[in-house]
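Let us practice reading a record.
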Amino acid sequence: SYKLNLPIGLRKRGIHDVFHASLLRVHEPNDNRLFPGRQESQVFDLDDPENEWAIDKLIGHRGSGDSIIFEALWKSGNRTWVPLSSIAHTDALRAYLDAAGV
């Protein structure tokens, strides 16, 4: 096993720093033209309000009450469904609710 010196962002996300030798490979930098949105700075952490920039806007929702989920359009261009509990602190949610008249 090898202990790696991980960037602080990965350590904050709970990535363990010890890996078995069979899991290690030579690092190949990301080619942003082929795989956009995969730079470390573009990977989001929903529980971190400082990374709120990753959500461009909310474009829809489903459900109600505790089971409500929102369709998020990310700055990277991806669309995903996220639960209310993950985005309750964001300006994107406030803007969506204002636009909906809530």
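A brief commentary: Strands lie at 2-3, 18-19, 55-62, 69-74, 79-83.
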